[in-house]
Amino acid sequence: MSAETILETQGLTKEFKGFVAVNNVDLKVRRGDIHALIGPNGAGKTTFFNLLTKFLPPTRGTITYRGVDITHERPAQTARRGIVRSFQISAVFPHLTAMENVRAALQRNLGTSFHFWKPEKSLHHLHGRAMELLATVDLQDFADELTVNLPYGRKRALELATTMALEPDLMLLDEPTQGMGHEDVHRVTQLIKKVSEGRTILMVEHNMNVVSSIADRITVLQRGAVIADGPYAEVSKNPQVIEAYMGAADTELQGAH
């Protein structure tokens, strides 16, 4: 695996009226890795994602993507570079079918998203690719099902398919297994591993079993600052990390070996 850095932050900091949400974060994400960002609630993980996707401007520090400083770009510019974020809350259209959702994402990628007045048959050329993407996330049998009727785990799988339709180089996954039962967690974890082939993933994730099974590298945030960075085996033994996850989360951390 190439150790080329695709995304790097240096001294990235975000303050809100004296409260430091992200504190001087240096992070390097290597191309092709699944990189997990973990930490207790309030550690600054979501704020950090918001800085990367330009939903928030940093107080100071820099964000470099493929060697280009993108710190002060607008969100749309950053998205066009191939950084695509999948939200904590399912970001699919509930009253379209699974196929129509993926097709809408493919249209967006072609720059034809405003052509809704075009006849339905003009979109048929996207069918093949949409079916391929649905098959990648094991949703080929649900193509004509309305999204609102899909079980929660399948909706998250559909969200992965729509994210992939935008052909990202770097996928930012925000709590991809949140609120799922054990079976769905396992399925979605395997899907993330599958879709990571040929792309880079940075994910915020609470579930330590997910992190330990698929992450190549882990960065731990506490109170907005990095307290550990490295492979799971190394990070999970770090006394500072164990202390940060005291109580129930601590046993979870230990139990995921």
The first-level CATH class name of the largest domain = Alpha Beta
The CATH superfamily of the largest domain is identified as: P-loop containing nucleotide triphosphate hydrolases
Q: What series of H and E elements makes up the topology?
A: EEEHEEHEHHHEHEHEEHHH
Oligomer: single chain
In the CATH classification, which architecture of the largest domain applies?
3-Layer(aba) Sandwich
- Describe the global form: globular
Give the spatial strand order of the biggest sheet.
Answer: 6-7-8-3-9-10
Overall average pLDDT:
88
What is the total domain count? Answer: 2
CATH fold assignment of the largest domain: Rossmann fold
Strand content: 15-25%
The amount of helix comes to 25-40%
Low-pLDDT residue spans? 247-251
Number of strands: 10
- Main sheet overview: 6 strands, mixed
Radius of gyration over alpha carbons?
19 Å
Protein name: ABC transporter ATP-binding protein
Domain ABC transporter: 7-248
GO molecular function: ATP binding
Keywords: ATP-binding, Cell membrane, Membrane, Nucleotide-binding, Transport
What does this 3D model show about the protein?
The protein is built from 10 helices and 10 strands. The protein has helices at 45-52, 75-80, 98-110, 127-136, 152-165, 182-195, 208-214, 232-235, 239-244, 248-255; strands at 5-16, 19-30, 34-38, 60-65, 68-69, 83-86, 170-174, 200-204, 217-222, 225-230. The strands form 2 sheets. Strands 6-7-8-3-9-10 form a 6-stranded mixed beta sheet, with helices on both faces. Strands 2-1-4-5 form a 4-stranded antiparallel beta sheet, covered by helices on one side. A hairpin with a 2-residue loop joins strand 1 and strand 2. Helix 3 crosses helix 4, helix 3 runs parallel beside helix 5 and helix 5 (152-165) runs parallel beside helix 6. The longest helix is centred in the middle third of the chain and has 14 residues, at 152-165. Mean pLDDT is 88; it is low at 247-251.
